[in-house]
Amino acid sequence: MSILLYNLNVFGEEWEYILIRNGKIEKTGTGNLPDAGKKLNMNNALIYPGFCDAHTHLENVGLMHGTLDLTGKQRDEVLGMVERACETSARVVGRGWDESMWKDAHMLTGEELDAICPQKVVILIREDGHLAVINSRAAEICNVKSENGIIREDALSVCIKKLNLFSTVDLHYAQNYALSKGITCVHDFATLNTFKQYFKMHRRGELKIRVYASFYDDAYKLFRDAGLYSGFGDSFLKIGALKLFADGSIGAGTAATRYANGSTIAPMLDRAHLKEIVNDANAHGIRVFTHAIGDLAIESVIEAYEGTTGNRIEHFEIVRDEFLKDWLSVCAQPNFLKWAKEGGLYHKKLGAESLLINNPYRKMLDSGMNVLFGSDCMPMDPLYGIRLATQSEYPHQRLSVDEAVRAYTLGSRYMASNLGEIKAGYLADLVAVKDDKITMTMVNGKIYNF
Ligand SMILES: [Zn+2]
């Protein structure tokens, strides 16, 4: 089956048409249109290679299905949604609130939730996934201590388990959501339960996007001892890396750095221990991706990675110049720049100096680092991230559209070497954009319209 896309503009190229056969790009060109089984007039849309979101948590997106999506909502809107949901649902689960964008920039409290929904469980996970606010009923069932309803990191994990929240994760919803944002490939971080679902979807031919599935330390020994290694799988599902955490987030105040109030947070992982895990994993063919946001965390991860290849740092936000090493691979989140403006969250938490050193994509590329972009699902939307990276007012961050798109497509190379570009012989993963909206996403020659 052949498909001809015509009346289009290809990003960075002069092509007037793209001919696709059996899931691959057969030919690109100008002038007379070749014959094809199906001809699609793209109405002058701009065609990009499929976006690869190189840092996702699809289970969080899947969790959003059937729960309250609090992304971009104001405090009173959030409370109104909880109150309404409390009347009709057995429990109230929400995700995506971010107090740093509110006029009244303090966090939600357990008291507020108790006042509007005392009898049912309420848990509202903050956008960064490192913190939640719960009501007294939820605190009772989870058996966790909170600071006026706020729980972080480990206590949050306990609560998610106790409430069995991930049993309702809908990965079909999550992958359709990804497609609607032009995403054809993700580097996902998955729990064992989610791995099980990926394998099942793969077996049934239900995976629509390509998934490079990384795992957490609870699955490490299991995978390692079974002989599984990074890159095992096919172009739709591959075993990814071992994900470690060297610190938390700036929003939750758990990133390892110095704060404007004079306090300093130390990294979560001991350096010698980190080096040991990296060596063991790499010796078994397993890459390590380590979450490191603050400069103190980044420093220790770089030390542990020195002399290795294939490992990566996730986030890499508070960056001193000495961290700009040409051998480093980093997955950064341009959508985090929404917090990096004057008067924003980073300014308040870390002081004005942080505005001049955070997320220096420009410097990172200039120093030869391998830079991938991912959304961390805050929100999952490559066009939004590309806009922030290309329109930043800070020269140390600002990229050209070409560079930003490249960072948001390169990750697909982890799935197959003939992905990430629109070129004859490459797999047909592409995205059509019209008036800043995704109108069509194609994966392996299969069309999804929006
Ligand atoms: Zn993440």
How is this structure best described in words?
The protein is α/β, with parallel strands linked by helices. The chain folds into three domains: 2-50 and 422-449, Urease, subunit C, domain 1; 67-166, Diaminopimelate Epimerase, Chain A, domain 1 (Roll), CATH 3.10.310.70; 170-414, TIM Barrel. 29% of the residues lie in helices and 26% in strands. It contains 15 helices and 20 strands. The protein has helices spanning 58-64, 75-88, 110-116, 136-142, 153-162, 171-180, 192-203, 217-225, 271-283, 295-305, 345-350, 354-357, 361-366, 382-390, 401-407; strands spanning 2-10, 17-21, 24-29, 38-49, 51-56, 68-69, 92-97, 122-126, 131-134, 150-152, 183-190, 210-216, 237-245, 288-292, 312-315, 329-332, 370-373, 430-434, 437-443, 446-449. The chain has an eight-stranded parallel sheet. A seven-stranded mixed sheet has the order 3-2-1-4-18-19-20, with no helix packed on it. Helix 8 (217-225) links the parallel strand 12 and strand 13. It is globular. The two termini are 22 Å apart. Bound molecules: zinc ion. Residues 55, 57, 189, 376 line the site of zinc ion.
Short note summarizing the structure:
By secondary structure, this protein is of the alpha/beta class.
Keywords:
450 residues; alpha/beta; TIM Barrel; seven-stranded mixed sheet; 29% helix; 26% strand; globular; binds zinc ion
